[in-house]
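Assemble and predict.
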Amino acid sequence: MDQKLFKYADLLVRAGGNVQPGQPVVISSDVADAGFARLVSECAYNAGASEVVIDWTDELSARMKYLRASDEVFDMFPPWRTDRFKYYDDRNAVYLHILSSDPDLLQGVEPGRIKRATKVMREGTKAHRAVTMTNERRWSLAAVPSPKWAAKVFPELAEKEAVEKLWGLIFKGARADGENPVKDWEAHRNNFLKRVDYLNETQFSALKFKNSLGTDLYLPLIEKHIWVGGGAVGRDGVPFFPNMPTEEIFTMPARIGAEGRVVASLPLSYQGSLIEGFWFEFKNGRVTDFGAEKNADSLKLIVDMDEGSRFLGEVALISNNSPIAQMKTLFYETLFDENASCHLALGKAYPYNLAGGCDMTERELAEAGANDSLLHVDFMFGTEDMSIIGIEPSGTEKAVMEKGEFCI
Amino acid sequence: MDQKLFKYADLLVRAGGNVQPGQPVVISSDVADAGFARLVSECAYNAGASEVVIDWTDELSARMKYLRASDEVFDMFPPWRTDRFKYYDDRNAVYLHILSSDPDLLQGVEPGRIKRATKVMREGTKAHRAVTMTNERRWSLAAVPSPKWAAKVFPELAEKEAVEKLWGLIFKGARADGENPVKDWEAHRNNFLKRVDYLNETQFSALKFKNSLGTDLYLPLIEKHIWVGGGAVGRDGVPFFPNMPTEEIFTMPARIGAEGRVVASLPLSYQGSLIEGFWFEFKNGRVTDFGAEKNADSLKLIVDMDEGSRFLGEVALISNNSPIAQMKTLFYETLFDENASCHLALGKAYPYNLAGGCDMTERELAEAGANDSLLHVDFMFGTEDMSIIGIEPSGTEKAVMEKGEFCI
């Protein structure tokens, strides 16, 4: 196990963030994951990091704060927190995030507090998110199973077995269980390239999604969109993998134009509550109606965050035969679940999904038709019978996916 | 045990920091002590804290950084860290510190790195230390046994027994093991008052220390000095206990004038190394010679930090019959060891040990004869045969302590 953990930590440093000699590294980690965070630190120093800073969080304290702090606290994001990001952004830091949240952490918390805290946090970290969303700074997310998370995924198992089983799926899903995982990820990147190149050359003007669950969506893509998959490339030319695992190929929809109905195929775990059986109606790009069988209130929090959270910022295609799709497991964690199924995101679009987007101002991005929001929330709508048709600029239709598998 | 821990956490909040409704609380804690830190948080919210912020540290990561980070890192103290203190100082926060350090943590670290990091840290936290050292903001220190610390104190015991035994001494030493510890601390405060009042009225111009270990020191006290013991009173009138435990009565020596030799009676644990068998020669207040049987290098780090670290900033009297003195245990932690024995401190003096000192500028304090330094390092020199004679302004001599016990 020790060696597996070390390989996984090393993978996060070398393939994930691709730390270069002399760079500071900022690790965000829950205090419960201190052991793994220290392994990541060690690997970062091995890779030549000038300094490793750990930004500790404690989800239990965060919950206590939500339940017991004075109300005005939730409208404050201390300037020093913004300055901290700026300090490390200015020094070209690599950001590594260790995820392990209890999916039910925020149950019972007043949703208004979460919404307000999220809003000021998003505003306070805007400049930092700008440099990560445009690949000016490298970053990577990886997961570690907490007992509560594992118990949620495998409620039928004892805690220890649940954690072990979740570790197994994480190692496998993150392709960290081979002899040389860093090399395996190189191969993984190359496998993406053909499909990505085809999609970028074809430049479909729109995609049509249809399945038996009730999804029937016409989705125009932004002009000069760029499909991305198999990792990203920093603006300095250094490749990295923002997400481990990653099985998706994704691009930017046009802000205006989506028409039809989307029915989610997996529940969405959002800030501690599980939104189930939900759907959206789109008219001219905007969510005009929505509903959920469970936790519709939380869905409303997302949709009503700001004007941009009613529009789409990402469309991602994943084949049925991705290793994570094959696990047939609901992870209650977007990092994994988004790699099991085609998905859309409400909210901010990634500028690198648009030719020249990383050099555009916010206004230029908006004028080009990119969506903006404080949020970016993925939700799954892929199924085993998903059909996707691409419409070429000439009007010719081409099958992109049939019965959930690529046919390009 | 759960109830004992809860009482101890509550004591730190109510008697230690004396948190008042609406105040933010900043807890500093190692990630290994997360469980206790959360208990303290809970007690702080019970006392009406508006918000609890935990400033997490991780001593193992700190050690890794000392060993592996780039050299220039040790001359930097990021401005956001200064701003963070200012943010909470401005909001009238109470600071609670949980101590649990492995006394040997920094063994093998290059001393120059520690010295440089300490220097920039002290400079970066100068404004914050000013408001805590003048009692403008309340703060309190309490200890929690880490396995490594416990193993150092009781090397003959197995880890579990060592931790249990250290917990026992901490509860007892911090007077946290009674039915109602908060009340016990009220009584503790009142017991100090008579002796403190006598000393403040008498206004000895100097003290003469002598014992069989070789100490023979003439120590002038600053004019209008104030003896403090049994806790402090915030500038807003709210009482608090900066240290738990506290058994000392202490005041400010004059910067100029100490003459003679001081031989330490206990080793000094300083930044990971244990300085043993050490002594100082004072001439006109200044350390003119010093030596140690072990780790003289670390002693040199202290003495040479700056000019002020060669002069005295505190003299504290502790009776042989204090509960901690009775334990006859070397704790390798100043918070405990300083309550076992009379001690002196090299470095900065506390302004509240001088009448009007809290309202003086740095320059006025210096002109009044108070010592200033980036450091404040306590060391023990009390023994069972310590004799202290006080010299009244008239020249009359009075016995203050005989054979290690007060005779006032």
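The longest helix of chain A spans residues 181-202.
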